[in-house]
């Protein structure tokens, strides 16, 4: 679970092609379909807080949880610069051991945060925690990279990008038997004196079949509601690269 240390410094730089505003509109649309138009929303694996801040601007009271202090530091600093009067509560926590002060109307988690949970028991623990803190009518929305994406698109590939501020080399290896994708990330980050310092990180993500996810949700007391091909309302396809899953609290009012 330890990741995004050195990479946190340049995460937003290399993720500037991600359409966060489009993603936030999609998430807001899903929440509103289930009556979540206001109230407190938890962003799990919030990273540098891009989605957290967009949901805050849309009128939700936001809590961001991440296990990277470096990412949360950037989230807090950027949030203060953008919205100095609109405080967001950021919590440094392992999502498997989530602890909140009260319940929330919705939980959202994007950018493959669930894939970083490498064991079914990890995913189950997280689902139990989410169900514990969701309001009785609460909704849980999260995305997942698919087996298809790891096997056909990422596995055994190298991705590289070179910019003046920094560069990266990203090697991928997918173990189909274990369903684990290993990311070996080499970073060259520019420092004040114009030199570049090299950093290395290794990340691991696991692919989960949708049926496994459904079973674990139900085991944790959550009701599986729907799964979509990402950013659509279309059913999951064999070649879906990312899917969105919607679950609902089964607690009684």
TrEMBL record:
Signal peptide: none annotated. The keyword Iron-sulfur does not apply. Gene3D superfamilies: S-adenosyl-L-methionine-dependent methyltransferases, Vaccinia Virus protein VP39. GO terms for biological process: methylation. It is an enzyme of class 2 (transferase). Coiled coil: none annotated. InterPro entries: Methyltransf_25, SAM-dependent_MTases_sf. Its EC number is 2.1.1.156. Residues 41-138 form the Methyltransferase domain. PANTHER family: TRANS-ACONITATE 2-METHYLTRANSFERASE-RELATED. This is Glycine/sarcosine N-methyltransferase. The lineage of its organism: Bacteria, Bacillati, Bacillota, Clostridia, Lachnospirales. The gene is bsmA.
């Amino acid at each position: 679970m330890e990741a995004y240390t050195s990479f946190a410094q340049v995460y937003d730089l290399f993720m500037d092609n991600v359409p966060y505003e489009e993603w936030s509109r999609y998430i807001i649309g899903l929440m509103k379909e289930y009556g979540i138009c206001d109230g407190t929303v938890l962003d799990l694996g919030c990273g540098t807080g891009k989605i957290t801040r967009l949901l805050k601007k849309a009128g939700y009271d936001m809590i961001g949880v991440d296990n990277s202090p470096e990412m949360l530091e950037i989230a807090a600093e950027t949030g203060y610069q953008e919205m100095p009067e609109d405080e967001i509560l950021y919590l440094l926590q392992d999502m498997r051991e989530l602890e909140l002060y009260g319940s929330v109307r919705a939980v959202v988690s994007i950018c493959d945060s669930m894939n970083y949970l490498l064991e079914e028991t990890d995913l189950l623990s997280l689902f139990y925690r989410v169900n514990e803190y969701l309001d009785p009518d609460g909704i849980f929305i999260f995305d997942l990279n698919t087996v298809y994406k790891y096997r056909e698109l990422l596995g055994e590939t190298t991705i590289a990008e070179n910019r003046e501020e920094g560069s990266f080399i990203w090697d991928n290896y997918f173990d189909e038997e274990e369903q684990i994708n290993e990311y070996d990330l080499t970073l060259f980050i520019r420092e004040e004196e114009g030199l570049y310092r090299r950093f290395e990180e290794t990340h691991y993500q696991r692919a989960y079949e949708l049926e496994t996810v459904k079973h674990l949700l139900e085991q944790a007391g959550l009701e599986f509601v729907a799964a979509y091909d990402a950013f659509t309302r279309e059913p999951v396809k064999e070649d879906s690269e990312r899917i969105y899953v919607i679950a609902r609290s089964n607690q009684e009012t």
